[in-house]
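From the methods appendix. Each design record in this collection lists the tokenized structure first, followed by the designed amino acid sequence. Records were kept in a plain field format so they could be parsed without special tools. The example shown here is representative of the layout used throughout.

RECORD:
FOLD TOKENS (625 positions):
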């Protein structure tokens, strides 16, 4: 018996069958029953029939109800309800209720609702199993009215009946009726609790799903997995990681979700550590780990990519994205050319990676794509806008059969970038719906054209504001030299509970630096730690700038030396300009030497250094250059 249940495939099943025959057990009725079930489970209804017919022909006893049930079920699970019905019709009268219910289940499993209804009407002996079978069939097909009608007619419902309708309402995206059914359930099992938690989860009511989980008298593997998946995309990562550690037995999908979440949350180290702990890898988790490595260590990602036993289109696209994102466009194009199969996403990734370069290169990739979608067309609009080809952007936008809110935002930004404020406002007014980004785009467009008052009116009209929207308006004030208004808006942002991000502090510190407000720079710098924001290169450049403007060159140089990054052309150029303003030739020479050592720097730095040296009337300019 145990041998039959261990068969992995048809070849394995036939090997087991041959061994049973050699042992002289092939005519035992219970063994025959197990053989029929075994062949049904490995996908061979033909072998199941051969066993059944062989027994019927050789045995002096007719097949019993168990054998008829086994053969009907074998045909059913292999998608052949017609053959199952033929076997049922061969069964002698009176029909036994067990194979009769198996035939009803065959119609249910194969979603033949009309045949199911007729067969159910013919049945006279109806048990709770019979009622639950037809109830589940209608529920599984989301035939809600028919399900409810059957439910009202069940003489005596059990917990399975109630669980069925709760699950059906959940799958029909009707959590209200699911909760009503759950609350009415006279007896609740762990399945009942899992069903209502799932109902809330699939309808994105994460808080209610969590409350249901917390109220459960006990939890099983399904409960843990369901609550984990419900929270995975909606709760803070640390909470998700804590919950993951509490799960007693973790499903493969649970491991994959936590690896992917860490990867998406820019925690590559955590993603890779979890991957090492996974009992079994799959292509999804490997792709997530590859993405994590590509975010932090491109060489490591390349090594991992070369060693992967299996690659799919996403694997290739991860590497393509990594090369494009980091500016290795030749490597991105080489990866694109090596891909065994191209699909739209890889064309879109390459086009997006090329943004900022010659639009003709992007157009070449765009034109070579076998198809275009709204993503590829929107990317092309952005490419045109960045290089001043507004007419081409407009023509492509007008030709698009379908536009998303992202497409409209891209076109508004294109108009704003090219100082076409009127066209930007017309496009904004034409949008079928507005997102936070849409409002931010029009606020930015108005601010760019020095219409700060109108920008603030648009900002105030926003129904919802995220950090990016606040950043846009703060930047509008800062860039128009209205530092007091910018700081007041920054304070209002904090009071509304919006978490400032790195971009917020770049805008705030930049505005303070431009106004020469040294004290304001340091006051806001102290807030970085308070809000858990790590100082980035741009923040240090702002500090270098404001100290230089204030004539505090030594302090400015100290900040430059303290940067946890290699100083870039912007920071060095800022200090060099301050040295020229303050006529500090010695310090300027030192900073200028660092500028000239850089592989890429602005030609204006040469001019600054030459002017600085000229103030000493020392004829050393040629030697330095």
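DESIGN:
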């Amino acid at each position: 018996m145990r041998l039959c249940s261990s068969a992995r495939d048809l070849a394995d099943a036939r090997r087991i069958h041959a061994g049973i025959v050699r042992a002289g057990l092939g005519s035992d009725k219970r063994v025959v029953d197990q053989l029929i079930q075994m062949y049904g489970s490995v996908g061979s209804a033909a072998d199941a029939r051969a066993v059944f017919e062989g027994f019927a022909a050789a045995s002096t006893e007719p097949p019993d109800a168990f054998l008829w049930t086994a053969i009907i079920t074998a045909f059913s699970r292999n998608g052949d309800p017609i053959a199952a019905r033929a076997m049922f019709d061969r069964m002698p009268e009176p029909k036994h209720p067990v194979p009769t219910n198996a035939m009803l289940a065959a119609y249910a499993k194969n979603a033949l609702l009309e045949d199911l209804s007729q067969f159910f009407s013919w049945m006279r002996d109806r048990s709770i199993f019979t009622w639950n079978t037809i109830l589940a069939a209608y529920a599984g097909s989301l035939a809600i009215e028919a399900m409810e009608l059957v439910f009202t007619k069940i003489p005596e419902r059990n917990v399975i009946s109630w669980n069925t309708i709760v699950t059906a309402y959940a799958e029909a995206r009707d959590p209200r009726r699911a909760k009503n059914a759950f609350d009415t359930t006279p007896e609740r099992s762990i399945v009942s609790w899992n069903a209502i938690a799932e109902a809330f989860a699939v309808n994105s009511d994460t808080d209610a799903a969590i409350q249901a989980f917390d109220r459960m008298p006990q939890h099983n593997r399904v409960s843990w997995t369901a609550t984990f998946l419900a929270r995975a995309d909606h709760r803070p990562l640390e909470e998700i990681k804590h919950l993951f550690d509490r799960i007693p037995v973790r499903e493969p999908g649970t491991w994959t979700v936590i690896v992917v979440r860490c990867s998406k949350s820019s925690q590559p180290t955590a993603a890779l550590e979890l991957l090492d702990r996974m009992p079994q890898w799959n292509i999804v988790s490997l792709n997530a780990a590859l993405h994590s490595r590509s975010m932090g260590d491109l060489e490591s990602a390349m090594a991992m990519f070369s060693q992967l036993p299996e690659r799919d289109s996403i694997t290739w696209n991860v590497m393509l994205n990594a090369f494009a994102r980091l500016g290795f466009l030749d490597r991105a194009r080489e990866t694109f050319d090596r891909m065994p199969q191209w699909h739209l996403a890889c064309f879109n990734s390459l086009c997006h990676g090329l943004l900022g370069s010659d639009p003709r290169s992007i157009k070449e990739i765009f034109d070579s794509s076998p198809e275009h979608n709204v993503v590829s067309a929107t990317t092309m609009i952005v490419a045109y806008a960045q290089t001043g080809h507004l007419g081409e952007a407009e023509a492509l936008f007008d030709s698009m059969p379908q536009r998303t809110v992202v497409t409209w935002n891209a076109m508004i930004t294109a108009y704003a970038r090219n100082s076409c404020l009127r066209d930007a406002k017309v496009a904004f007014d034409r949008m079928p719906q507005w997102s936070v980004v849409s409002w931010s785009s029009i606020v930015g467009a108005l601010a760019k054209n020095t219409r700060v008052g109108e920008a603030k009116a648009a900002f105030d009209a926003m129904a919802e504001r995220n950090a990016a929207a606040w950043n846009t308006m703060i930047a509008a004030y800062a860039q128009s030299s209205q530092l007091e208004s910018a700081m007041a808006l920054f304070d209002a942002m904090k009071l509304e509970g919006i978490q400032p991000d790195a971009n917020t502090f770049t805008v705030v510190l930049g505005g303070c630096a431009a106004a020469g407000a040294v004290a304001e720079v340091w006051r806001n710098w102290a807030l970085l730690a308070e809000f858990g924001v790590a100082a980035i290169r741009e923040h240090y450049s702002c500090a270098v700038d404001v100290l230089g403007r204030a004539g505090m060159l030594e302090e400015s140089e100290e900040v430059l030396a303290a940067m946890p990054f290699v100083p870039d052309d912007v920071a060095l150029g800022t200090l060099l300009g301050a040295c020229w303003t303050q006529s500090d030739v010695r310090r300027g020479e030192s900073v200028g030497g660092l500028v000239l050592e850089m592989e890429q720097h602005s030609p204006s730095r040469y001019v600054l250094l030459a002017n600085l040296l000229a103030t000493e009337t020392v004829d050393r300019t040629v030697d330095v250059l």
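APPENDIX NOTE: Residues 536-625 form one domain.
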